[in-house]
C-alpha cells in the first residue's frame, strides 16, 4: 500500500476514536478501544513507515528546520508524521475525557476541547487546561 492510501485510511480510521470520545465517553470500552486498539494500530503503522526508510535517517535530521523539511520530502515520512499527529492527538483527547470524568467536569464543558484537540492538538489541551483550572480552581490537579 502506498503512502497516500495509508494516509487516507488513517484519516478515516481515526474518526472512530473521536466519535467514541464525543458520543460515548462513558462506555466501558471507549478508553480501551482507543488506548489498546487504535493508538496501538497507529503505532504499528507509524513504526512500519519509519522502518521502511530508516536508511535515509541521519542523527541530525531534527537539528535544524532545513533538515526537518528535507526529511519530510519523502511521502512515507510525511505519512508517518501524520500518523504521529493523529495518534498523539487522540491520546490527548482520551486523557482529557478520562481526567474530566475523574474530576467531575461536565461532559458539555470538556467536549468543547475535543474538536480543537482533534484539529489543533495543543490548542485543545490548552482549552481543557483552562476549563480544568477554572472548575477545580487549581493548576496542579
UniProtKB/TrEMBL annotation:
Keywords: Membrane, Transmembrane, Transmembrane helix. The chain crosses the membrane at residues 6-27, 34-52, 77-97, 109-131. Pfam families: ABA4-like (PF14108). The keyword Cytoplasm does not apply. This is DUF4281 domain-containing protein. The lineage of its organism: Bacteria, Pseudomonadati, Bacteroidota, Cytophagia, Cytophagales.
Amino acid at each position: 500500500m502506498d503512502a497516500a492510501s495509508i494516509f487516507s485510511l488513517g484519516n478515516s480510521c481515526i474518526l472512530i476514536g473521536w466519535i467514541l470520545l464525543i458520543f460515548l465517553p462513558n462506555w466501558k470500552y471507549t478508553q480501551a478501544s482507543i488506548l489498546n486498539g487504535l493508538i496501538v494500530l497507529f503505532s504499528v503503522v507509524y513504526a512500519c513507515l519509519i522502518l521502511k526508510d530508516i536508511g535515509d535517517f541521519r542523527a541530525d535530521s531534527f537539528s535544524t528546520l532545513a533538515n526537518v523539511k528535507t526529511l519530510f520530502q519523502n511521502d512515507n515520512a510525511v505519512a508517518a508524521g501524520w500518523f504521529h499527529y493523529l495518534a498523539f492527538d487522540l491520546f490527548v483527547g482520551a486523557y482529557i475525557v478520562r481526567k474530566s470524568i475523574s474530576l467531575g467536569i461536565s461532559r458539555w464543558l470538556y467536549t468543547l476541547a475535543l474538536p480543537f484537540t482533534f484539529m489543533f492538538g495543543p490548542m485543545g489541551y490548552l482549552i481543557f487546561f483552562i476549563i480544568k483550572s477554572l472548575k477545580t480552581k487549581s493548576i496542579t490537579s
